Amino acid sequence: MSRKYKFRDNEKLYFVSFAVVHWIDVFIRNEYRQVLLDSLRYCQEKKGLEVYAYCLMTSHVHLIISSQGKPLAEILRDFKSFTSTQLRKAITENPQESRKEWMLWVMERAGKRNGNNKGFQFWQQHNHPIVLNSNFLIQQKLDYLHNNPVEAGFVEQPEDYIYSSARDYAGTKGLLDILLIE
């Protein structure tokens, strides 16, 4: 992996994105989105994760984060590991999931091809952290993150998408407690 994309200073702001293997649209169901939101809350409360912005799309997640505690690489590793297990369970146990067999087959196939896994892979391997060391970069990533649902055609205005911190930045309480970038 390139040395360019690593967490070097946990107190700096980072933009990270991670996606489901093969960009499967898992997060179209509320119960799957809830697993992610609950896990982010847990990381905030118990692991020192500071969330400044987020956007949960159907197949991927964007975050602007930092930490005053545990290293960010460890927090994200634990987050991805835990949510992978929980989401696999949620998919398996969901009687309404018409794509269950296909999704599990794709994830098992991806896991068997990756020696870092135990026969199952939910998330793609990399987080691609980008340090946000200037106001220009912070604004660019914040705009990109919040405009993602608009570009996807889900909403007309960023603040209309409930699975995003754009609501918080527009003055409406969102689904996750965040720290605003001033």
Could you characterize what this model shows?
It comes from Rufibacter roseus. It holds the Pfam family Y1_Tnp. This is Transposase. Residues 11-148 form the Transposase IS200-like domain. The chain is globular, with a radius of gyration of 16 Å. Helix 1 runs antiparallel to helix 2 (72-93). The model has no long low-confidence stretch (mean pLDDT 92). The protein has a four-stranded antiparallel sheet, sandwiched between helices. It has 182 residues and is of the alpha+beta class. The protein has a single domain, classed as Transposase IS200-like (Alpha-Beta Plaits). The N and C termini lie far apart (33 Å). The chain has helices spanning 30-47, 72-93, 100-112, 135-151, 166-169; strands spanning 14-19, 49-56, 60-67, 130-131. The protein contains five helices and four strands.
